[in-house]
Each structure stands twice: as structure tokens, then as C-alpha cells.
Amino acid sequence: MMMNHSLFPWMIAALMGVFVYGLTYHARYQQPAPPSYQFYDTASVTVEIRGSEELHDIYGRYNNIIEGKRQLVKASQLSESRYRLTFEVNSPRPALLYVDDEPQEVFLVPGDTTLHMSLRYVPETFRFDSVTYRGKVANICDYYQDKRQRFGRVSLRAAPHLIATDTFQVYAAKLDSLAARELAFLAEREVFSTLPQWFVSFEKSDILYQKAYLKLSQAYNREVSPELLDQAPLHNAGAVLSYYYYLYIQTYLSQHFPGNPGRPQEQVLQHLAVADTMLRGAPHDVFMTRAIFQQLQRGDSSLARELLDRYEGRFVSQKYARFLRTQVMGEPLPG
């Protein structure tokens, strides 16, 4: 049977079309690589205000996980309607932007300069509406915006203020209820949106460890039934980006290994010895870096140097050890 050679060009064109479509589909729908901790990096946000020629007050707040550095960043004006904020960012996590004191939650990633926030100003109400985002993390910012509209100020982040009039049992029940609602909302958005899987893991961990940390910290010096506390895993690789994960570990160690309150250095040595055996991988490196850096912040450089000498060889990723050596010893970063 003879093959019709006139079909060859059409077959080749069809195969090329399938190949190009496959590449396009893969590029469009593949999950981006999870972000990681990066030292001495920045992230910037461009803010555009439509419908207004006035000068607006725009600033942002961000807290680095490792240094615990709380930043207040004022926006610089690029043009009549465009502003830019640049943050020192070493850890991927949320930040709050304020436009004329109206808060908007965004997500910052080290090295990301693509985030663009656009707001429409309504002169009749002196308020903003129609907030939209563009950039690599736009879908995450959309999630935060929808979450705020769903829950308002009734959220886990406002939970510490509830303790003033509640018994611990009532307080714990409120935390459980708030966390369940937020997890249900996350599951709903995971199905109907394109949230990256690494962010879903981060948000789930942040909710659960925030709840566990709030319970544990409020139980200090109180008679609390153990079943009211959360038994959250101390080693959890999926929680590596969660600020509350490290607060929970630190609080757990303080309460379960109190040591001698009159000898804080001995407490630190004991806590890091336990953490060094309990944690692995990135959670180990981040927690140990935070703990050693905290000694510098407290002015105890000799203890920080002792801890670095003891644990430097235990880091899985040497970028953490290099960062600490630069901070503790004043040595320049390697080229």
C-alpha cells in the first residue's frame, strides 16, 4: 500500500502543534518552585491609585522571621498615581500595606519585583474599592483579600484579645472554631483557585501553629487540662515558612525545659541542644539561626559565638552558617 506523501507536511504540522500545545500547557499550569529563605534580598510592590490626583499616604509593615526585624516602609512616589515600596525580605511571608490607613494584606517573596496592586479611589466616600493584583503572587494576594472579606476582624490574629474575659476552656474553644473556619475556607479556595501547593501547606501550617502557640502561651502559669492544648508536631518540614511554627517550638521548649530561670545562658544551651536533636533539615536550620541571632540582639555576642562554634557543622544548608558567621564574627560574605 502506497503512502500519500502529500500527507507528510500535514502530519508534521499536526505533531508540531501538539508539541507546542503541550509545552504551553506545561508552562501555564506547572506548579512554581517553592520560595525559600534568602539573606540580604528585597521585594518590591508597586501601588497604582486610579481616580485620584491627590497625594496618598502609603506605607507597609513586614517582619522578617529570622532577624525578627519589624520594618515600617514608606512608599516613594513614582508618578502622579504610582508608588513603590521596597522591603528587606529574607523569608516569604505576609505583609500589611496601608493606603490612607486602610490595610491590605499581601505576600512578599525574596527577590520578587512583579507584585502590582491597583486600587480605585471613590471621592464620594473617600475610600478605595476594586482592589486588583498582578504578578507572581497575585493569586495569593487575592486569597488574602477574599479571606478578609469573609471573616473581617473575627480571625485568629485577633484572638489574643479575647482572653481578657474568657476562661481558658472558652478561649480554647473559640480558637478551635476560628481555625476550623479558616481551614474550611482554605480548602474551598484550594479547589476553585490556582493557589500553589507550597502556599496551601504554608497557610495550613500557619493556622494550626498559630492556634497551638496561642493556647500554649496563654496556658503559662495556669492550671490547664492537657486535652485543651494542641499536640502539634515539633518537627514539620511543611511548616518551614511559618512564623508561628517557630514561636510554638520556642514556647514549648521554655515550658517543658524551664531550667534555672536565674541562669538564662544555661536555658539557651539546653533548648538548642534539644532542638538540635529534635529538628531536621530546613526547620532545624531556621530555628537554630533564629535562636543564635537572638543572643546577638540581646547583646550577648560571646554566647552567640559559642553557639555558632558548637553548631556550625550541624547546619544542612551552609547559607545559614555563613549568615551567622557574618553577623557574629563580622566577617564579609564570601564572593
Radius of gyration: 24 Å
Order of helices and strands: HEEEEEEEEEHHHHHHHH
- What is the CATH class name of the largest domain? Mainly Beta
Question: Strand portion, in percent?
Answer: 15-25%
Name the average pLDDT: 86
Query: What's the tally of helices?
Result: 9
| CATH architecture group name of the largest domain | Sandwich
Distance between the termini: 67 Å
Would you kindly provide a brief summary of this structure?
The chain is an alpha+beta fold and 335 residues long.
Descriptive overview:
The longest helix is centred in the middle third of the chain and has 25 residues, at 168-192. Helix 4 packs parallel to helix 5 and helix 6 packs antiparallel against helix 7 (281-297). 29% of the residues are buried. This protein has 335 residues and is of the alpha+beta class. It has helices at 8-29, 138-151, 168-192, 197-218, 243-256, 264-278, 281-297, 301-311, 318-329; strands spanning 42-50, 58-63, 70-74, 76-77, 82-88, 93-99, 102-108, 115-122, 127-134. The protein folds into 3 domains: 42-143, Immunoglobulin-like (Sandwich), CATH 2.60.40; 153-241; 257-335. The strands form 2 sheets. Strands 4-5-1-8-9 form a 5-stranded mixed sheet. The protein has a 4-stranded antiparallel sheet with strand order 3-2-6-7. The protein has 9 helices and 9 strands. A hairpin with a 4-residue loop joins strand 8 and strand 9 (127-134).
